[in-house]
């Protein structure tokens, strides 16, 4: 689904990711083990055609927003996704900052805050959720800084390599609903 307008923050702009945004740099992020370590994309080998199919499916979906994360000095630095459940008035979010030189600079927190506000005020959801591998301390810190709380810990829910890993479920309750 395509948002009606770009989502602008202090340093970040979120806008609809389109097929023409698929670049070698983007495909490289999806294949980079340091970047995708905690992402489910690591289980697929993304070719340009597979990425194009994914983008088309998101654009044609009535409940998925696939957005590019941009900052003026760099252009595209990552992507984020919103899965909107209209029936339950909830949304699940996720993000990837692919530009590793920009990790640990507070950009993830800004993206999370922008997504949460968009979900609450534009989509009218009552609750925003996310799932994080327990050892993904940087993402956990960003979500907690953005007002999310750990709602549950699912023991040995996922595999990190061949090692079972706990999965944290996080939640943000919208104040506008």
Write structural notes for this entry.
The chain has 177 residues and is α+β, with helices and mostly antiparallel strands. It has helices spanning 24-31, 48-60, 107-122, 137-145, and strands at 7-8, 13-16, 64-71, 75-85, 90-97, 127-133, 149-160, 163-173. An eight-stranded mixed β-sheet has the order 1-2-3-4-5-6-8-7. The mean pLDDT is 95.
Q: What descriptors fit this protein?
A:
8-stranded mixed β-sheet; alpha+beta; Aminopeptidase; about 180 residues; single chain
CATH top level assignment: Alpha Beta
Order of helical and strand elements: EEHHEEEHEHEE
Mean pLDDT: 95
Given as residue ranges, the uncertain stretches (5+ residues, pLDDT < 50) are none
Would you report the number of β strands?
Answer: 8
Considering DSSP H and I runs of 4 or more, what fraction of the residues is helical? 25-40%
Identify the CATH architecture.
3-Layer(aba) Sandwich
Biggest sheet overview: 8 strands, mixed
Distance N to C terminus: 23 Å
**Class inferred from helices and paired strands:** alpha+beta
> What is the rounded Rg?
16 Å
What is the name of the CATH superfamily? Answer: Gcn5-related N-acetyltransferase (GNAT)
Count the domains: 1
